[in-house]
């Protein structure tokens, strides 16, 4: 059993929201529920989130798009290189999250208990 965690953090790397997805689904499926109802100044992401509908959604909201692009993208987007450096905060969050063995090994049997462990681990990470 595999599970993907698609997470949204704030500018300090603290968890705001997350979505659990089956391991065989693409990461962009979880983006719409994550950004729904949240006022974003910018969205920083890696190549997995380089989708036209995400770029269009962020443009409509007036948010900056700071997503690394696939080499085959027809229309290259300009991204702020200095802002892109801050993407490491989400990577750092996932590294801290995976320090918890139950999350790294997906020891929970249900999605509900797995989500609860992620919330608990995020609370511990924020309290450090």
TrEMBL record:
InterPro entries: Transposase_11. This is Transposase IS4-like domain-containing protein. GO terms for biological process: DNA transposition. Residues 2-124 form the Transposase IS4-like domain. It comes from the Bacteria. One of its GO terms (molecular function) is transposase activity. It comes from Dactylosporangium matsuzakiense.
């Amino acid at each position: 059993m595999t599970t993907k965690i698609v997470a949204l953090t704030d500018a300090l790397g603290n968890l705001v929201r997350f979505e659990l997805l089956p391991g065989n689904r693409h990461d962009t499926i979880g983006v719409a529920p994550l950004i729904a109802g949240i006022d974003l100044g910018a969205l920083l992401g890696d190549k997995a989130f380089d989708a036209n509908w995400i770029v269009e959604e962020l443009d409509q909201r007036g948010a900056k798009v700071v997503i690394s692009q696939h080499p085959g993208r027809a229309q290259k987007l300009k991204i702020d290189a200095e802002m892109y450096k801050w993407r490491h905060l989400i990577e750092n969050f996932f590294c801290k999250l995976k320090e918890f063995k139950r999350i790294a090994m997906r020891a929970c049997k249900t999605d509900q208990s797995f989500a609860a462990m992620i919330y608990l681990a995020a609370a511990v990470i924020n309290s450090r």
